[in-house]
Specification:
CATH topology of the largest domain: OB fold (Dihydrolipoamide Acetyltransferase, E2P)
CATH superfamily of the largest domain: Nucleic acid-binding proteins
Largest sheet: 6 strands, antiparallel
Organism: SAR92 clade bacterium H455
CATH architecture of the largest domain: Beta Barrel
Number of strands: 24
Number of helices: 14
Pfam family, one: RNase_E_G_Thio
Strand content: 25-35%
Helix content: 25-40%
Number of domains: 4
Family: Belongs to the RNase E/G family. RNase G subfamily.
Structural class: alpha+beta
CATH class of the largest domain: Mainly Beta
Distance between the termini: 73 Å
GO molecular function, one term: hydrolase activity
Keywords: Cytoplasm, Endonuclease, Hydrolase, Magnesium, Metal-binding, Nuclease, RNA-binding, rRNA processing, rRNA-binding, tRNA processing, tRNA-binding
Radius of gyration: 29 Å
Shape: globular
Length: 497
């Protein structure tokens, strides 16, 4: 499958799109004044230990305190040993005012601070260096058993040789994970990477000793450099960059760390914006909409809440050519592929519930679930399908590390306050009539003036005019109406005159 990376640079933000066979699959946005924190390493200070939650709040110098759970504090081996002797107590490990090195594994979302881990690691194009332990792992996406064994044996030899070269001056241990990009890597490339990562970690250690908490010890690469480190695989054929300055920086970065990437780089000097050329702007607009249309005529509805995301499949205008069951089956099959792609583009994370159209055929249900699994298999973010519930809902989880596309680009609607709907003019009219009665009882006056939006005033002076007249007689007070063009539908004021 042919892949291309598009890098759009402006003074305000960096945007990257992954395109497969001409179709956008993933979109990443990083704003210069709101860079993500994932991967950053901090020297933090414990501000509060919560024994009931087996967690602690850590001050890392950001606006909101970050969250560290005991599962992310202890190495896996230590946790297993602790479980044998009873549940570990976080109060024995952390106390208020303690300084600790932590790494951000999830960006702040909404009112929640960043999620932290005390299991530190630094990454390169080929390897992830884990500070704790001596484990040597290989990415599951490298499928060849022969290649996995070759890489593991070669890495083990390289690590032993590099440690021997460093001698007593650098008694660093640590473990390594070979990333997908290491498939086919040569010995010299891995050796240089191991040396680079160990030098980088020594530099972080030196800063940790001298720095005062809270402070940042290591900041992950900006998005346009992470593209070369994390996203360039064997299927990427071209990386188009629309900024000459950033193109030069990436060329220098590639020559230093991975010369094979440089041949993929291409400066795009065209007058037409890069994202318009590949219809990425249109794709972003679609990803912000609640409803996504299917080619068959059906549609999918996406709803995102703080706790989970829900996805509802509907046949819509698709009536099929054979029978109802076949129509539903084809709609669900098409929806499964579109849902997997939209989850990547929208960067949905956490719990995701999919409500496919009910199917009576067991084989049809199995085929739709298989189509969803196959489509999700290409997602680089860890995604699991928990199966189908008794109600016929498909439960999935997708690892959340950063904000979704909607959370980055949008803010809560000041009119509906995030509900997605507002009260009708009829409801507002009745609410105003009730409130007029309350104000008339609270104040002695001859007249009341109602200020509201045009649709509400129109309702009060037309359909509900008889109720207004009866109310005037009941409270013995005249009621005046005035349209306020700047008022939202749910906004009104009642002023005694």
């Amino acid at each position: 499958m042919s892949q291309e990376l598009l890098v759009n640079i402006t003074p305000m933000e960096t945007r990257v799109a992954l395109v497969e066979n001409g179709v956008p699959q993933e979109i990443f946005i990083e704003r210069n004044n709101k860079r993500g924190l994932v991967g950053n390493i901090y020297k933090g200070k414990v501000v509060r230990v919560l024994p009931g939650m087996q967690a602690a709040f850590i001050d890392i110098g950001e606006a909101r305190t970050a969250f560290l759970h005991i599962d992310d504090l202890l190495p896996r081996k230590t946790k297993l040993n602790a479980m044998d002797t009873g549940e570990p107590d976080i109060r024995k490990l952390l106390h208020d005012g303690q300084q600790i090195a932590v790494q951000v594994i999830k960006d702040p979302v909404g009112t929640k601070g960043a999620r932290l881990s005390a299991q530190l690691s630094v990454a390169s194009h080929y390897l992830v260096y884990m500070v704790e332990g001596k484990h040597l792992g290989v990415s599951q996406r490298i499928e060849s058993d022969e290649e996995r064994e070759r890489l593991k044996l070669m890495l083990s030899t390289i690590v032993d040789e590099v440690i021997a070269e460093e001698g007593a001056k650098s008694p660093l241990s640590g473990g390594y994970i070979l990333r997908t990009a290491a498939d086919g890597a040569e010995e010299a490339e891995l050796r240089n990477t191991v040396r680079f990562l160990r030098r980088l970690w020594q530099d972080i250690l030196q800063r940790k000793i001298s720095a005062k908490a809270p402070c940042c010890l290591y900041e992950d690469l900006p998005l346009y450099k992470r593209v070369l480190r994390d996203m360039v695989g064997t299927e990427v054929e071209k990386i188009s960059v629309d900024s000459r300055e950033v193109y030069d920086k990436l060329t220098h970065f590639g020559n230093k760390f991975n010369p094979d990437m440089v041949r993929l780089l291409e400066h795009y000097p065209g007058e037409r914006p890069l994202f318009y050329m590949y219809a990425i702007e249109e794709e972003i607009a679609k990803a912000l909409q609640r409803k996504v249309m299917l080619k068959s005529g059906g549609h999918i509805v996406f709803d995102q809440t703080e706790a989970m995301s829900t996805i509802d499949v509907n046949t819509g205008a698709f009536v099929g050519h054979r029978n109802l069951e076949e129509t539903i089956y084809k709609t669900n099959l098409e929806a499964a592929v579109v849902i997997a792609r939209q989850m990547r583009i929208r960067n949905l994370g956490g719990i995701i519930i999919i409500d496919f159209i009910d199917m009576h055929s067991v084989e049809h249900r199995r085929q739709v679930l298989r189509a969803l699994e196959k489509a999700l298999a290409r997602d680089p973010v860890r995604t699991t399908i928990s199966g189908v519930t008794e109600l016929g809902l498909v439960q999935t989880t997708r690892k959340r590390t950063s904000q979704s596309l909607g959370q980055i680009l949008c803010e809560e609607c000041p009119t509906c306050f995030g509900r997605g709907y507002v009260k009708s003019a009829e409801s507002m009219s009745y609410e105003i009539l009730r409130d007029i009665l309350r104000v008339a009882r609270a104040y002695e006056c001859d007249s009341l003036r109602v200020l509201a939006s045009a649709p509400v005033i129109e309702r009060l002076t037309d359909e509900d005019s008889s109720q207004v007249a009866d109310l005037e007689l009941f409270i013995n007070c005249s009621i005046q109406f005035r349209v306020e063009s700047l008022y939202a539908l749910e906004q009104f004021d009642i002023i005694p005159v």
